[in-house]
Amino acid sequence: MAEHLTKSAARNIFYGGSLFFFVIFVGLVAQSVHYAIDNGGKISASAAAGKRVWERHACFDCHTLFGEGARFAPELGKVWLRYGGDKDPQGARDALKSWIRSQPTRIEGRHQMPQFNLTDQELDELVDFFIYTSTINTQNWPPQPKTAG
Amino acid sequence: MKYESQKVAKLYFIGALTLFLAQVLFGLLGGFLYVMPTGLPDFLPFSVIRMIHTNALVVWLLMGFFGCTYYLLPEETETELFSPALAKLQFWLFYIAAGAAVVGYLFGYYNGRSYLEQPLYIKVGIVVVALMFLFNCSMTLLKGRKTVISNILILGLWGIALFFLFAFYNPANVILDKMFWWWVVHLWVEGVWELVMASILAFLMIKLTGVDREVVEKWLYVIVGLALFTGILGTGHHYYWIGTPGYWQWIGSVFSALEILPFFAMVIFTFTMTYKGGRDHPNKAALLWSLGCSVIAFFGAGVWGFLHTLAPINYYTHGTQITAAHGHLAFYGAYAMVNLAMFTYAMPQLLNREPYNQVLNMWSFWIMTSGVVFMTAALTFAGVLQTHLQRVMGFTYMDAQAQLGLFYWMRLGGGVVTVTGVLLFIGSLLLPGSARKVR
């Protein structure tokens, strides 16, 4: 360690610098909170209830949402659009609900999703939550390759 | 061991080791489900296995940190702990809460976000435990000698408790939820936990190498400075795709790319101190774990973190097995190994068992580390392939998974080796073994 850096100088740099960066961070986060309220603030009571269903059953411990969670099952942030909910909302809603109801598939070699015995209302709330997440601007994530495999 | 109250650390270390074993066993079950998805009964779905695996990890690391603190604080402050009785009570509260949480998970008592699945009353219990701990340690620090190591350590531990409070904030707005969830998760493991890790390593370096405290403390400031200067704004690398503004792609990329620096500094630090130090300390195993810790943390947290931290790359890799690869090696190198280094250093003294069986301990080092490295390599290949199939070729998630079986088998193999290493490690510390006379 360089001789000209004294311990008290190192201490001052550490405490001062950390405080400096934390203040900048808090400022940027405050700005982002405003942005987040515009981007994701329009959440209906039903979608908010759907978020609680998502949390109550720890869906994130298999699925990802905007890439966060576990990687045992598909990403669901834009699942509403993947099911064509923007074109045929009722069809997508029914398809999502019956998919969840029909689990587990018990197909050998395929990742299994448990049966959560959700009520019809809870299923609707969960779908409303997915509609909500599909409206959020995620900077075009996830990537949408043109060539389907 | 100079101070009687250091003995409470033993309880914490043994408790941490039992949870460590639970963590890796549930890890095996999770790895098994990746290759045999219908192989376990319905009451053990992947979600429950994962939450036990991750929660047991976090709790044993924290329990280890608590134990390390109780062990080193009296020596640093040159005074007995404020209250060893409070420390024991705190242990049992924490251990029982952890046990209750795990058993509860098996019966469906969970609710929350990733890593924060604990029911509300368990979360409140964690806060009570943290307050007991901080009170005890802060009172000890106040009445004793204030060294840089003890100051940084206690600062880090206060930070852990403070940022945990964001676990209670869970708004309906999913963007805000995610933003502040990272205040617990990122500001812990890429922030204040690094303070704890660096100060434990600094303590071990003084004890094991005999290098002058003045030199070690200057290094410590530089390391923790680099950790926070890069790590705080480095939080931005979690704010790329969760509904936050686009400028985080620049801030996150620049600062998180620099997060490798404190880990590089720790490698230079531990090796320079070992090279310069004149002391021939008999506990070679503890030195091996300390050096290994800085090296594997550099690769796991530093290099494997850098691999996918730049926004244009992360756009493709985000939420794939690349993240899992990085997570495994980083947690192992930085936080498991620093605990295991301290356990290896302190347990023989706590058990009055010097000299002790170092050979078995060093074998466990190489076996466990090889297991985790192999697991990480397998997950890295799986992640690269998954990224290409899914994010470039446009395969669906399930179609991509079908191509990854070989890598998941290799990962499971790495997991078995890791568990073997963990069992050997526990054996080397707790069993009397064939004691070897060391001068």
UniProtKB/TrEMBL annotation, chain A:
InterPro entries: Cyt_c-like_dom (IPR009056), Cyt_c-like_dom_sf (IPR036909)
Protein name: Nitric oxide reductase subunit C
Keywords, alphabetical: Heme, Iron, Membrane, Metal-binding, Transmembrane, Transmembrane helix
Encoding gene (name): norC_3
Domain annotation Cytochrome c: ranges: 45-134
Pfam families for this protein: Cytochrom_C
Residues spanning the membrane: 12-37
PROSITE patterns the UniProt entry points to: CYTC (PS51007)
Record keyword Cytoplasm present: no
UniProt GO MF annotations: electron transfer activity; heme binding; metal ion binding
From TrEMBL, chain B:
Membrane topology according to the record: Multi-pass membrane protein
Swiss-Prot/TrEMBL keywords: Membrane, Oxidoreductase, Transmembrane, Transmembrane helix
Localization, UniProt: Membrane
Organism of provenance: mine drainage metagenome
Gene3D superfamilies according to UniProt: Cytochrome c oxidase-like, subunit I domain
UniProt enzyme class: oxidoreductase
Pfam families referenced in this protein's UniProt entry, alphabetically: COX1
Gene Ontology cellular component annotations, sorted alphabetically: membrane
Protein known as: Nitric oxide reductase subunit B
Single Gene Ontology MF annotation: nitric oxide reductase activity
Any GO BP: aerobic respiration
Annotated PROSITE patterns: COX1, COX1_CUB
Domain Cytochrome oxidase subunit I profile: 1-439
TM helices/strands, residue ranges: 12-36, 56-73, 85-108, 120-142, 149-169, 181-206, 218-241, 247-273, 285-307, 327-347, 359-386, 406-431
